[in-house]
Automatic annotation (TrEMBL):
Protein name, UniProt field: Hypercellular protein HypA
Domain Trs120/TRAPPC9 first Ig-like: 775-935
Keyword set includes Repressor: no
A Pfam family it matches: Ig_TRAPPC9-Trs120_3rd
Biased composition (Basic and acidic residues): 315-334, 1382-1406
Cellular component GO terms, alphabetical: trans-Golgi network
C-alpha cells in the first residue's frame, strides 16, 4: 500500500506511530519499519479476540463479529502537526491510536545499551538488564503519549536464550528474518490489532456517552493550534531530558506532514521524546486503561463521567484550559434540561447523538467492521441531514463511500445506503440500468460507478456550504484531492470501477505511463470534470490560515493528480507556486535555525551546514533535513518542474541521480545525444519563463540549503541562457540571454558552493559544465626539426636494394632522406614529451577558470600532464598541453578531460566544425511530450555533429644527437676554386638509446641551379652530361673516409671528417645527418622505420684561383726534338705524327704567386710559376686520339633514366649533330689525359686543381687531334731494296711507290685507293700537270680487297721520274660500300629498336667515307750523273 497521506481511503486507515527505543541505528530502524510495513493490511479473520482475563466490558469492535473485514495501518515515524491533530474527532484518522517502539535486539548485549540499567534495571546479565530498562522506557512512553490507545515495544532480531530471559508485558521479541516464519510479522501485527480493537471499545463508549462533539470550524485555527498537544510538549524544558542517548534533541521535534519522511535526528533514533509535566483532561479521553476485576478496579466510564468534559473542545488535549477561551467554552456547554421535542436543547442533543454515531462509524471503519460502520454512518447521516448539520452530513457520506470502496476492493457485495442516493432516486425501488453498462460487472458496482461523480460533488458541496460552522481549508482541500484521485482512477480505467481501479484507490498503484494530450471525451468522468473539482482545493489566498507545511502538502497533492492526467503545464504551474511557498517557508525556517544556532541569518550557507554542529548532526540544521530527504524527493521534484517548463538540463534522457550512481557517460555517442536533446529543449517553451523557474529553484536550494541543487540549477541556468552554438567562420552570435552581471554571480555562486562542499567533505557534489562545445580543436604542435621522427619505407634503407648498396648514395638516385620533413606528421616518440594545442571556446561573458585540463587518449599507455588555464570572456583561446607516450604503437586523441572550477571533471569531445541548434521541419508531437520524443532518424539537417579524433603513431624510443663541435670557426669557410679542405664534426648522443644507423646527405647552393638546368628540355646532350658530371664527380661535400664506424653509444661521442670542394657559385652548404636505432641488422628490418635529422649549415666563400683563359692545339710534323722530351720527362716517340702540341693559357686570379703543374697521361709534366694577375702559356705534347665511334650518342650519368643515352631534342641537321658528338668525345679524351693542379708558394699553403672542363675544341683542333679510322702510309723504294724506303731517286730510274692502307676499326672496310703525284712548290694547275714529268706502270686508282678490322694491305705501283725536281706523293682511300657487321648488306634503317632509330634520325644515314693521307711523301729526283 502506498504511503501517500492523501490516499483516497486515508480516513479508513489506523495511524500508528513508530518510535526508536534504546540503542538503534537509522538504517536498522528503517529496515525494521519496512518489515512492519509489509504487513500493514491485517485481516480480521486472522485476529483473535482479546484474551486478557478480568475484562468486564464486552468488546464493541470484536474481530469475530465481521471476519471479512480488514484493518489498514498507516505507519508513520513522526508526530502529526498540531493543525492535523486539531481536526480530531472530525477526522479521527489523523490521530495516532498506537505507539509502536522499535528496539534492536542485536544491541541488547551492549553494557552501555541504556543508562537506566544503573537505576532500576537489575538483572543477572546485561541482556536482562537492558530488557528491564526497555520496559522502564515503555512506561515512560505511556506517560509521554497518554492519548495513544496501546503502547508496544518490538525487539527485532532477538531470540530468547535457553535460560529464558522473561519478556515483560507490552513487549514482544521478533527473530531475525532468516529464523522467522512466513506468519511471524503477521502474528505480531494481529496481536497489536487485537489489543487495539479491545482498547477501542473504551474509546468508543466514551464517544457514545458524549452529548456534544464540536465541529472543526467552530473556532479559529489559532485556538486549535494553541490548545492541541497530542504528544510531549515540544516547548517543555523536560523535553530535553535525554536518556540512553549521546545526541542532543533538536528543538523542532515535530516533523512535517510528509508520510515518507523518517525522523533521523540523533535524539529521536535513540529514545522517544521526553515526557511533559502535568496530566491531560480533555473531552477526548487520554490513554484509556482497561479495568480489571479486583478491589482496585474502577467501573467503566459512563456518560455522567464525561458531562463535564463535554464543555471542553474534544480536540483539546491541554492539561489546563486557557482563560482566553472561557467564554467559548461556556457557549459550547450543552444543558441537560430540555424544553420539549423540537426545542433548542433537543436539537443540540440530537445533533450530538448524530455526531457521536458518525464518530463511532468512523471507528468501525478503522476497525475493519465495514458493515457496522455503514449502519452507524447511515443513522448519523440521516440525523445530520435532518438537523441541517451539513458538515457532519458530508463527513458521514464520505465515510460511507470509504466503506463502499473497501467492500468493492474486497470483492464483497454491498447495498448503497438510501441516504447516499439523490433525492429523486430515494423513492424509486427499481433503479434503471445505465446505458452502455458492462454486464460482466457486478450490479452493485455499476450503481456505485454511476452514483460516484454526483455523490462526490454533493459531499464537496456540503463541506463548502457557508454557515455558522465551516470546514477549514485543510480538510476540505485534502478531501477534494482524495475525491479527485478516485475520479482519476475511474478515468484511467475507462470510467469503470473494476479491480484495477480499486487497486489504484486503496493501494495507491499508479499508471505505467501518464496520459497523453489526446482527448478522452467519451469517458465519464471526463478530465475536465476532474480538473474542475481538483482546483477547488487550490489555496488561492493567504487568508485561509494554512500553515506552510499544509499549503505545501495541498499543492503537492494537486500536482500529483495533474501529472498522470496529462496536464503537465498545469502541473508545472502548481509546482511553481509550490516552490514559491517552499522558498518562503525555508527562509523562515532557516532564520529560526540560525537564531537557534546563535548565528546571523545572513551568515550564508556555512553557518547552517552540518559542519558547524559539534555533535556531527547530519542534514540541513535549519529544517532538520537529512541528506536522504533532499536526495530522494526534492531533487526529483525540482527536476520535474524544470522539465515541465523545458529547462535545458544536462541530460534529459538520464537523471543526474542515476548518473551519479551508475557513472556518467561522456562518450561521443552520449555527448551527441545529449546535445540533440538539449537542442530540442531549447525550442520548447518560453526562455524568460525558463530563466525565472531556474532562479526560483536556485533560491529554493539556497534556502534549504541544498548544495547539490545550488550547483545543478546554477549550471542549468547558465546552460539555458546560452545559445548552444559552436561558432564558425561566419562569427554567429553566440552570446547568452542573461546579463553579464548575472553570469558572474552564477559562476561565483558555483565556485563558492564548490569550495564549501569540499571543506565539508562532500567532494562528490559538483556542477555540470554548461557548454558541450568547450573543446573546438586539438592539434599536435610540430616538434623541432631535430626531434621530428621521419618515416621511411624499408626499401629506402641502404643495402636493402641493389641500387642502394651503400649509405652515401649516388646524387642521381632519389634520396628520400633529403626530402623536407613533414612538420604536420602525426608521429610521437615513446618516452619523450609531445606538445598539443587545444582550442577552448567560451561563449559567455565571464572568465572560465579551468583547474585542470589533460588529454584523453585511446591506444597505448599515455601519460597526459595536467595544466591550468584562465579563458577570457567570449573568445576562443589556445591552451598548450603535454603528454608522454610510454610505449610504441598507435594513439588516438579523442578529447580532453577538463575540470572547470566548481564543475565535475569530465571528458569533452572535440567538435571543430560550425554547428548551431535547429528546429525540425515536421512536428508530430505537441506539448512536453515533444521533448521526450526521439528525433527523426536521418533528419539531422545539413549540420551533422562529427566529433574529431587525432590519430597518432608512436615510434620506438629514438636517440637524440646534437652537434657538439666543429673544426670550422662559426661554421664558415673560405676556399679557393679547385681547393679541397677537410674539416671534422663531433656528434654527441644525449639520449639513453644508442645510434646504430647514420646516413649523411649533402646539400649546397650549386645543386638547385644544376637541377633546374637538368630539367631544361632545350639543353643539349653535351650540356646535360656536363651538369650531371658536376653533380656526381664534383660534389661540394663528401666523406673522404666512408668506412668509418657510424655507431654512437648512449651519452657517447663520434667525430666524422668531411671534405669540401671550392666550386664557383658555392655560397652555402648543409650536412644532413639521418640517424636512428634499428636494433637489428639492416637486412632483417621488416617494416618501416623512423629517423631523425640534424643539420650542420655551412657558410662558404669561394675565391678564384687559377683560371683557364685559352687553349689551342698545334700539329707536329716530324719528330719532336729530344731535348724537349728530356725536359718534359718523357720518351721520344717512334712515329712522327703520334703527338700534337697543346697550348694552355692560365691566369692567376689569387693575390699571391701560384705554381701550376700540368701533366699528361704519359707522365710528362710542366710546372710554371704565375704572378698574381698575370697569364702564362704552357705547352705540352698530347698524344693524338683515335676513337672507334666518334659519333656515338652522348651518355647520361643519371642511372634513374630508363635509357642509356640522351638524344638531342633540338632541331639541328645531322651534320651538325655529328660534329657536336665528335667534338664531345674528342674533348673528353683530351680532358682524360690532362691533369692541372696549382699551389700557393706563400703561407698559408693551399693547393687545388685547375678546372679544365671549360675548354672548347674547334673543327681545326679536332682534325689535329684525331687519328682517322683508316691509316695511309706512302713510301718509295727500289725494287731491289724493298725493305727500306728512299726519299731520293734519279731521273729515269725505275722505282716503286708503296701505299699501305691500315683499317683501324673493328669492322671490315671495302675501299679503293688513289695515288696522287704532284709537283712541289707549284701552283695547282702546274703541279698536277705531270704527264711529261712523271710516269707510272698501271693505274693510279685501284680497288683494294675487303680489309678486315685491324688488317693492312699494300698497293705497289712502279713509277719513273722523267725530270729532276721534288715530287709530292699523296693518296686517298674511298669506301666503295658501307659494310654493317662485316656483311655486304647495305645500311638500312632498323625498325626493331626505337632508341637506335632515334639516333639514326639524329645523325642521318651512314654514307661512304673517304680518307686522305695526313702527310705526303716527298720524293727528290736528281740527275744520275
Amino acid at each position: 500500500m502506498s504511503l501517500d497521506p492523501l490516499l483516497p481511503i486515508a480516513p479508513a486507515r489506523v495511524k500508528a506511530l513508530l518510535l526508536p527505543l534504546g540503542k538503534i541505528k537509522a538504517a536498522r530502524f528503517a529496515s525494521f519499519a519496512e518489515r512492519l510495513q509489509a504487513e500493514h493490511v491485517v485481516q480480521l479473520r486472522d485476529i483473535s479476540a482479546d484474551g486478557r482475563p478480568n475484562r468486564t466490558s464486552p468488546d464493541m469492535f470484536s474481530p469475530l463479529a465481521y471476519p471479512d473485514g480488514a484493518m489498514l495501518y498507516d505507519l508513520i515515524a513522526h508526530v502529526p502537526p498540531p493543525s492535523h491533530l486539531a481536526l480530531s474527532p472530525f477526522d479521527l484518522f489523523r490521530e495516532p491510536m498506537a505507539v509502536i517502539a522499535i528496539a534492536d535486539g542485536t544491541e541488547l548485549g551492549d553494557v552501555t545499551y541504556s543508562k537506566r540499567a544503573s537505576m532500576n534495571g537489575k538483572g543477572p546479565t546485561p541482556v536482562e538488564k537492558n530488557i528491564r530498562a526497555l520496559y522502564q522506557e515503555l512506561e515512560e512512553l505511556r506517560d509521554n503519549y497518554p492519548k495513544a490507545l496501546i503502547h508496544r515495544v518490538l525487539i527485532f532480531d532477538y531470540v530468547s536464550p535457553s535460560h529464558e530471559v522473561p519478556i515483560p508485558e507490552g513487549m514482544a521479541a521478533i527473530p531475525p528474518p532468516e529464523e522467522s516464519k512466513r506468519t511471524t510479522m503477521k502474528t505480531v501485527m494481529c496481536d497489536i490489532s487485537s489489543l487495539l480493537l479491545a482498547e477501542m471499545t473504551t474509546l468508543g463508549k466514551s464517544y457514545e456517552a458524549m452529548t456534544a462533539i464540536e465541529s472543526p470550524g467552530g473556532y479559529s485555527l489559532a485556538r486549535q493550534l494553541s490548545t492541541t498537544s497530542w504528544g510531549p510538549d515540544a516547548t517543555s524544558p523536560t523535553s530535553f531530558t535525554r536518556r540512553n542517548s549521546q545526541f542532543a534533541i533538536p528543538q523542532h521535534l515535530q516533523r512535517s506532514s510528509s508520510a515518507t519522511g523518517l525522523d533521523r535526528s540523533g535524539g529521536r533514533l535513540s529514545l522517544p521524546p521526553a515526557p511533559t509535566g502535568g496530566s491531560s483532561s480533555v473531552s477526548t479521553p487520554g490513554r484509556p486503561s482497561t479495568p480489571l476485576k479486583s478491589n482496585l478496579s474502577s467501573p467503566p466510564l459512563s456518560a455522567d463521567d464525561f458531562s463535564s468534559a463535554s464543555s471542553q473542545r474534544p480536540e483539546s488535549p491541554e492539561t489546563h484550559p486557557k482563560p482566553d477561551f472561557a467564554e467559548d467554552a461556556s457557549r459550547d456547554r450543552v444543558s441537560v434540561q430540555g424544553f420539549g421535542p423540537g426545542g433548542a436543547n433537543d436539537r443540540w442533543r440530537l445533533k450530538g447523538k448524530g455526531r457521536s454515531a458518525i464518530v463511532i462509524g468512523s471507528m468501525y471503519l478503522q476497525a475493519g467492521r465495514w458493515g457496522d460502520s455503514l449502519k452507524e454512518l447511515s443513522e448519523g447521516a440521516t440525523a445530520a441531514k435532518s438537523l441541517n448539520d451539513h458538515i457532519w452530513h458530508g463527513k458521514a457520506l464520505e465515510l460511507i463511500l470509504m466503506n463502499l470502496l473497501l467492500l468493492g476492493w474486497s470483492g464483497l457485495t454491498f447495498q448503497i445506503p438510501t441516504v447516499c442516493l439523490p433525492t429523486q432516486d430515494k423513492h424509486s425501488s427499481l433503479k434503471p440500468e445505465p446505458e452502455n453498462a458492462d454486464q460482466d460487472q457486478p450490479r452493485h458496482l455499476r450503481y456505485l460507478q454511476n452514483l460516484l461523480p454526483e455523490l462526490l460533488e454533493r459531499i464537496v458541496g456540503l463541506y463548502s456550504r457557508i454557515s455558522a460552522e465551516n470546514v477549514p481549508h485543510l480538510p476540505l482541500a485534502e478531501t477534494v484531492i482524495r475525491f479527485s484521485k478516485i475520479l482519476s482512477a475511474m478515468h484511467f480505467c475507462d470510467g469503470k470501477l473494476n479491480q484495477k481501479a480499486f487497486d489504484m484507490i486503496v493501494n495507491g498503484k499508479g499508471l505505467d505511463k501518464d496520459l497523453t494530450t489526446s482527448p478522452r471525451l467519451l469517458i465519464t468522468p471526463s478530465r475536465q470534470h476532474i480538473l474542475t473539482l481538483l482546483f477547488k482545493a487550490f489555496p488561492s489566498t493567504a487568508t485561509e490560515m494554512l500553515t506552510t507545511v499544509d499549503r505545501i502538502s495541498i499543492l503537492s497533492g494537486i500536482a500529483a493528480v495533474l501529472g498522470p492526467l496529462g496536464y503537465h503545464r498545469k502541473k508545472a504551474m502548481v509546482t511553481r507556486e509550490l516552490v514559491s511557498v517552499l522558498i518562503g517557508g525555508l527562509v523562515e525556517a532557516r532564520t529560526r535555525g540560525a537564531a537557534d544556532a546563535g548565528v546571523h541569518p545572513a551568515a550564508g550557507l556555512v553557518a547552517l551546514t552540518p559542519g558547524g554542529n559539534a555533535q556531527g548532526a547530519t542534514g540541513a540544521m535549519a529544517l532538520d533535513l537529512a541528506e536522504g530527504d533532499i536526495e530522494q524527493g526534492i531533487e526529483a521534484f525540482l527536476e520535474l518542474l524544470c522539465k515541465s517548463y523545458g529547462v535545458v538540463g544536462f541530460d534529459r534522457a538520464k537523471p543526474r541521480r542515476q548518473s551519479m550512481r551508475e557513472g556518467f557517460d561522456d562518450s561521443d555517442d552520449a555527448v551527441i545525444a545529449r546535445i540533440r536533446g538539449q537542442m530540442k529543449t531549447r525550442f520548447f517553451g518560453f526562455p524568460d519563463i525558463k530563466l525565472n523557474i531556474l532562479r526560483a529553484c536556485i533560491n529554493f536550494s539556497e534556502a534549504l540549503p541544498d548544495f547539490n541543487g545550488v550547483l545543478k540549477f546554477s549550471s542549468d541556468l547558465m546552460r539555458t541562457a546560452g545559445s548552444g552554438v559552436a561558432p564558425g567562420p561566419r562569427r554567429e552570435d553566440a552570446s547568452p540571454k542573461i546579463h553579464r552581471d548575472e553570469q558572474i554571480r552564477l559562476v561565483s555562486n558555483i565556485s563558492r558552493t564548490s569550495n564549501l562542499v569540499k571543506r565539508l567533505g562532500m567532494s562528490h557534489l559538483t556542477a555540470e559544465f554548461w557548454d558541450e562545445f568547450l573543446v573546438r580543436e586539438i592539434k599536435l604542435e610540430p616538434l623541432s626539426s631535430t626531434r621530428i621522427p621521419i618515416p621511411h619505407a624499408r626499401s629506402v634503407l641502404p643495402g636493402a636494394t641493389i641500387t642502394r648498396t651503400s649509405q652515401d648514395v649516388n646524387p642521381f638516385i632519389y634520396n628520400p632522406f633529403l626530402k623536407e620533413p613533414d612538420e604536420t606528421a602525426a608521429n610521437l616518440v615513446a618516452g619523450e614529451p609531445a606538445k598539443f594545442r587545444v582550442t577552448i571556446q567560451n561563449t559567455y561573458d565571464v572568465e572560465l577558470d579551468i583547474e585542470s585540463i589533460r588529454l584523453e587518449t585511446d591506444g597505448v599507455d599515455f601519460e597526459a600532464m595536467k595544466e591550468t588555464a584562465i579563458i577570457g570572456p567570449y573568445r576562443t583561446q589556445a591552451v598548450r598541453l603535454q603528454g608522454v607516450a610510454k610505449e610504441s604503437g598507435s594513439i588516438t586523441v579523442t578529447g580532453a578531460i577538463i575540470k572547470v572550477k566548481g564543475c565535475r571533471e569530465r571528458r569533452f569531445a572535440v567538435f571543430p566544425k560550425h554547428w548551431k541548434p535547429y528546429q525540425e521541419d515536421k512536428i508530430k508531437v505537441k506539448g512536453i511530450a515533444s521533448v521526450s520524443v526521439p528525433m527523426m532518424s536521418g533528419k539531422y539537417h545539413d549540420q551533422p555533429l562529427e566529433p574529431f579524433s587525432l590519430e597518432l603513431n608512436v615510434t620506438q624510443p629514438q636517440p637524440l644527437v646534437i652537434v657538439k663541435s666543429t673544426t670550422l670557426p662559426q661554421s664558415s669557410v673560405m676556399i679557393l676554386e679547385g681547393e679541397r679542405q677537410i674539416f671534422s664534426v663531433t656528434l654527441q648522443n644525449q639520449s639513453t638509446t644508442p645510434v646504430d644507423f647514420m646516413l649523411f646527405s649533402f646539400k649546397d647552393s650549386t645543386q638547385e641551379p644544376l637541377q633546374t638546368a637538368l630539367a631544361n628540355r632545350d639543353a643539349t646532350p653535351a650540356e646535360l652530361y656536363e651538369y650531371e658530371l658536376i653533380l656526381i664527380k664534383k660534389q661540394a661535400l663528401r666523406l673522404p673516409h666512408n668506412n668509418s664506424s657510424r655507431n654512437i653509444a648512449p651519452g657517447g661521442e663520434a667525430t666524422f671528417e668531411f671534405e669540401i670542394l671550392g666550386k664557383p657559385g658555392l655560397t652555402h652548404a648543409t650536412i644532413q645527418i639521418d640517424y636512428t636505432y634499428l636494433g637489428v641488422p639492416r637486412e632483417e628490418v621488416k617494416e618501416d622505420f623512423y629517423t631523425r635529422q640534424i643539420s650542420v649549415p655551412l657558410t662558404v666563400t669561394v675565391n678564384a684561383s687559377v683560371e683557364l683563359a685559352r687553349i689551342d692545339v698545334l700539329p707536329m710534323h716530324g719528330l719532336i726534338p729530344q731535348p724537349l722530351w728530356e725536359r718534359l720527362g718523357g720518351t721520344k716517340p717512334i712515329k712522327p705524327d703520334e703527338y700534337c702540341l697543346l697550348s694552355v693559357d692560365l691566369r692567376n686570379a689569387w693575390p699571391s704567386q701560384m705554381a701550376v703543374h700540368l701533366e699528361n697521361e704519359a707522365g710528362m709534366a710542366v710546372e710554371e710559376g704565375i704572378l698574381p694577375g698575370k697569364t702564362s702559356r704552357i705547352i705540352i705534347p698530347v698524344k693524338r686520339v683515335y676513337l672507334e665511334d666518334p659519333h656515338a650518342s652522348i651518355p647520361s650519368l643519371n642511372p634513374s633514366k630508363d635509357k642509356q643515352f640522351v638524344v638531342s631534342t633540338s632541331k639541328i641537321s645531322p651534320e651538325m649533330e655529328r660534329a657536336n658528338r665528335e667534338a664531345f668525345w674528342y674533348r673528353e679524351r683530351i680532358l682524360d689525359c690532362l691533369k692541372a693542379t696549382w699551389r700557393t708558394t706563400a703561407v698559408p699553403k693551399r693547393n687545388g686543381t685547375v678546372e679544365l672542363r671549360n675548354i672548347r675544341l674547334t673543327t681545326r683542333m679536332i682534325d689535329i687531334v684525331k687519328v682517322g679510322e683508316v691509316g695511309i702510309d706512302i713510301s718509295v723504294e727500289r725494287p731491289s731494296e724493298s725493305e727500306s724506303s728512299i726519299s731520293t731517286a734519279y731521273v729515269d730510274e725505275f722505282i716503286q711507290v708503296r701505299v699501305r692502307v691500315t683499317n683501324r676499326t673493328s669492322r671490315p672496310v671495302s675501299s679503293l685507293v688513289r695515288l696522287l703525284p704532284a709537283l712541289c712548290h707549284r701552283s695547282v694547275n702546274i703541279a698536277l700537270d705531270y704527264t711529261r714529268k712523271f710516269v707510272w706502270n698501271g693505274t693510279l686508282q685501284q680497288l683494294l680487297p675487303e680489309l678486315q678490322g685491324g688488317a693492312s694491305t699494300d698497293f705497289v705501283i712502279g713509277v719513273t721520274a722523267l725530270c729532276r725536281g721534288e715530287f709530292e706523293l699523296t693518296a686517298s682511300v674511298e669506301e666503295i660500300q658501307v659494310m654493317e657487321d662485316g656483311s655486304e648488306k647495305p645500311k638500312e634503317r632498323p625498325q626493331s629498336d626505337n632508341t637506335q632509330t632515334r639516333e639514326d634520325a639524329a645523325i642521318g644515314m651512314k654514307e661512304r667515307r673517304m680518307w686522305h693521307s695526313r702527310r705526303p711523301c716527298i720524293l727528290t729526283v736528281k740527275d744520275s750523273d
